[in-house]
Design brief:
The chain is mainly alpha-helical. The protein has 32 helices and ten strands. The termini are far apart.
């Protein structure tokens, strides 16, 4: 029963504490900023043959000026491989490079760009296409952006704005009039022969066979491998052509591709391979690592030889340990031999098992490559209403949540909730899971009231159906307690945290991550109540468990360092606090990336130490760095942003910049009031009163003496 365990902690005296149970994002961005490779690049194709003239034409045309350049032609003649060849051979001539693959007709340009650039450009799920294009325009020129298999003519117009600093190389089946366009034709006979012989060396005449399949790259490889693997001999193949058993390829009529594949599929004698091909057609038509496929197919021990055999027979493209099902073959399988839901369901269950959020050892940040495959599977079974689908939607929700894409997480989980209420009823444990997960999304967005209402719904079901001593019930106690803590209701929070701890110790033992999370949660409360010895003891207890079971470079380990540091900070032991805050920051920058909410928390917390040490320039720089991240990934109104504004106002006030302090404090108060955070409002109101009092006092003073209170020239 998947469950997003959401136990993000509170902020005490401006210092931000994180709960060990928090789900995090793995950005994988380099510390130096935006990486050269904005996306994964294609593997090298050792069997690339010919196309020297066409490749040189692309080189010459793109060298003349930055532009949008289109390579078009029928499916399967090598447009993608030509674009990949240009990319790999010329990548050193560009400051930044990226490949965007359009594998499904439902993919929009915006979706593709967000998915591909999420990590390297630190995009949030609310960003618009126009804003993404603007971010690309700001990259240091010269850049190469390759869009493979673009399907929408309007998208080409949208991409035209990038030609000031980028070479934009597009492959498409569409016939689009353009100033710079390469209409890719079939292979010349000599190149076609070389390609065939690279897969099946022979001294026999093959000219009639090449002519029959119209020198079409994809089918040359498929037929050559068919002969190489002994499925048909050259003579048997020639007889089938002569008798009409094999459809002749007509490049002007793409239905002939389909007819050709139907006949090739019919002679495939291995039913296990056919079934595997049908399952692979559920996945996106992009290069996928074999190790990833093994996880998707639930560590099937027979998968590796089946993939190898399908590649040998020409059904799969294999390059450097990666496999890809060509879009034409994928479309053929789905149109003519779609796999049934019942046959595909074990794969869905296997993926859900790989991503079960109830596994306390799971780090979803390391599994985000599943997203595209899950989306592709859900697209194929979009009309199915099934609990297996709902569980797969849980997995996708959890991954979106880990990436901070809260709107997408909420949308997919709402679909799962509706399915469960219809099929299972309103009082089923899985329905409670959906309530819990949607509540966690609301809580991460700072909407604690909505979160509490849904957590309470989940709790009512779980207490009634599972009992009060079940781990899922304990999770809900923790989550409700965290929401109460965020709203400042410490007594209610403590009672629920202790209930969760009792269950965790009894059911999971004293050395389990969930137990550590409970120790951590209670410690947050003790720290807020200034009971530092108790807080420190529990934080240390949690850290010992986390380091032992998850390791020293895990996001939850960083959380423990962060929380112990905040106790030292509150005790005014700034050197110890700074060391631990920096240890937490080092892990977060390496594992989560520079632009993640938890990394922003670390910047804020280190800034507060500098503030306490009266190093105001360093404090201000880090607070503003945190705020910039929060604006990008959390949106306009979030409690963390309000905390940053409050902290910045405090530093400005200490530097006697009263106007800047006033502006920041007013922004903080506005967000707190909009979110009804009554526990935060009084502190910021007091800060505003102090700022206004100083401004009023300064106005009554002479210009020479005024700087003692406010350094602003105009008040």
């Amino acid at each position: 029963m998947p469950d997003i365990k959401q136990t993000i902690g509170t902020k005490a005296s401006g210092v931000q504490a994180n709960e060990i149970g928090a789900v995090n994002i793995n950005v994988n961005a380099s510390k130096g900023g935006i990486p050269k490779n904005l996306t994964l690049l294609p593997a090298k194709n050792p069997n690339f043959v010919g196309r020297k003239t066409e490749l040189q034409q692309i080189v010459d045309d793109l060298a003349s000026d930055s532009m949008v350049y289109i390579v078009n032609g029928i499916g399967g003649i090598g447009k993608s491989e030509l674009a990949y060849k240009y990319l790999l051979e010329n990548k050193d001539n560009y400051q930044h490079i990226a490949l965007f693959e359009f594998s499904d007709t439902s993919d929009t340009l915006e979706d593709i760009l967000i998915a591909a650039l999420k990590q390297s450009l630190f995009l949030d799920d609310n960003i618009t296409l126009e804003r993404i294009l603007y971010r690309l325009q700001q990259l240091q020129e010269k850049c190469l952006l390759v869009f493979d298999n673009l399907k929408n003519t309007d998208d080409i117009k949208k991409l035209s704005c990038l030609n000031s600093n980028c070479d934009v190389l597009i492959t498409t089946r569409l016939n689009i009039p353009a100033h710079k366009c390469l209409n890719l034709e079939i292979l010349p006979p000599d190149d076609a022969r070389a390609l065939f012989l690279s897969h099946y060396p022979t001294d026999k005449n093959i000219d009639d066979i090449l002519e029959y399949i119209d020198y079409h790259s994809l089918f040359i490889e498929l037929i050559a491998k068919t002969v190489q693997e002994g499925c048909l001999s050259l003579e048997e193949l020639r007889q089938k052509f002569q008798s009409g058993d094999f459809a002749k390829i007509d490049r002007s009529f793409e239905q002939s591709f389909n007819d050709f594949l139907i006949q090739r599929f019919q002679i495939e004698d291995n039913e296990a391979l056919k079934k595997q091909l049908q399952l692979l057609a559920l996945l996106p038509s992009v290069e996928i690592k074999r190790t990833t496929l093994e996880e998707i197919f639930n560590n099937d021990t027979r998968l590796k030889p089946k993939l190898s055999e399908l590649a040998k027979r020409g059904w799969l493209i294999q390059k450097e340990g990666n496999y890809k099902l060509h879009q034409i073959i994928k479309e053929f399988i789905l149109a003519n031999h779609p796999i049934s839901f019942d046959t595909a369901s074990p794969i869905m269950q296997g993926i859900s098992k790989q991503l079960d959020p109830n596994d306390a050892y799971l780090n979803p940040n390391e599994k985000t490559y599943f997203i595209e495959s899950i989306e592709s599977i859900l697209e194929q079974f979009s009309t199915e209403k099934n609990t297996i689908i709902a569980t797969l939607q849980d997995s996708l929700c959890n991954l979106y949540f880990a990436l901070g894409q809260y709107n997408k997480a909420q949308k997919i989980q709402q679909i799962a909730l509706n399915t469960r209420k219809e099929l299972l009823g309103k009082k089923h444990p899985d329905t409670a899971t959906s309530y819990n997960n949607i509540a966690s999304v609301y809580r991460s967005q700072g909407n604690y009231s909505k979160a509490l209402a849904l957590y309470q719904k989940a709790l009512t079901i779980r207490e009634e159906v599972l009992g009060k001593k079940h781990p899922d019930t304990a999770t809900t106690y923790n989550n409700i307690a965290g929401a109460y803590e965020s709203k400042g209701n410490h007594s209610k929070a403590l009672a629920l945290y202790q209930k969760a701890l009792t269950i965790a110790e009894k059911v999971m033992g004293k050395k389990h991550p969930n137990t550590a999370a409970s120790y951590n949660n209670i410690a947050v409360l003790y720290n807020n109540q200034e009971n530092y010895p108790k807080a420190l003891a529990l934080y240390q207890k949690a850290l010992t468990i986390i380091e032992e079971v998850l390791g020293k470079k895990h996001p939850k380990t960083a959380t423990s360092y962060n929380n112990i540091a905040l106790v030292y900070n509150n005790q005014e032991n700034y050197p110890k606090a700074l060391v631990l805050f920096q240890k937490a920051l080092a892990i977060r920058e390496e594992v989560l990336g520079e632009k993640h909410p938890d990394t922003a928390t670390s910047y804020n917390n280190i800034a507060l130490v500098y503030n306490n040490q009266e190093n105001y320039p360093k404090a201000l720089a880090l607070h503003q760095k945190a705020l910039t991240i929060q604006e990008e990934v959390l949106g306009e109104k979030h409690p963390d942003m309000a905390n940053s504004y409050h902290n910045i106002a405090t530093v400005y006030l200490k530097q006697k910049y009263c106007n800047k302090a006033l502006t920041s404090a007013e922004k903080a108060l506005s967000i707190y009031q909009a979110l009804n955070l009554d526990n935060k409002i009084p502190n910021t109101q007091d800060l505003l009163k102090l700022i206004k009092r100083n401004i009023k006092k300064a106005k009554k003073m002479s210009l020479r003496r005024r700087a003692r209170v406010c350094k602003d020239r105009d008040l």
